[in-house]
Amino acid sequence: MLLFYMNLHEVRVQIHQTKQALADLSDQSQIEAELKKLLDLKEQEKRLAELLRGPANKRMKGAKKHSAVRGKSKPKRYVITCQAELKKPDRSEKWVKYRCDDLVKLCQFLDRQFPEWCFFNVFSNRGSNKGEQLASYTKNNRPVHARV
């Protein structure tokens, strides 16, 4: 990595020297040769800089440029199992499972995605009581607060 930085510095010094030399030249053929050399040096500088920082389009859209903490994020507070649909004639059910921190926002999401949802159970997803059922809510008995 240090070698790349040294090469990049050398290329930038050469670019500066070439620009100074261009100012002193009067012969058209020499100016063209120096301009070609300058363009090659600029291209080399661009490649070295990209190698050092990586291409700009590799970063995910919306990702932070500098993050103090890297690695896994904290697990969501709750695991939710929800009966999303109940079809009357054949009594077939559709169950969905989500992980969330805010139960009120979860209800809003369920209303948008599954207007026919019946109820959901809330299980702990952290600590010593992980997997323990904490609460159960229905379409008429909704959570009032974000947390149990």
What can you tell me about this protein's structure?
The chain has 3 helices and 4 strands, in the order ααββαββ. The chain is of the alpha+beta class and 148 residues long. It has a 4-stranded antiparallel beta sheet with strand order 2-1-3-4. A hairpin with a 4-residue loop joins strand 1 and strand 2. It is rod-shaped and about 90 Å long. The chain has helices at 2-24, 28-53, 103-113; strands at residues 78-87, 92-100, 119-124, 133-138.
Write out key terms for the chains shown.
148 residues; alpha+beta; 4-stranded antiparallel β-sheet; 41% helix; rod-shaped
Short description:
Helices cover 41% and strands 21% of the residues. The chain contains three helices and four strands; from the N terminus they run H-H-E-E-H-E-E.
**Uncertain residue segments:** none
Helix content: 40-55%
Tell me the major beta sheet: 4 strands, antiparallel
Number of helices: 3
Spatial separation of the terminal alpha carbons: 51 Å
Strand order of the largest sheet: 2-1-3-4
Principal-axis shape equals: rod-shaped
Tell me the number of strands.
4
Q: Helix and strand succession?
A: HHEEHEE
Strand content: 15-25%
Mean pLDDT, as a whole number? Answer: 81
Structural category: alpha+beta
Q: How big is the Rg?
A: 31 Å
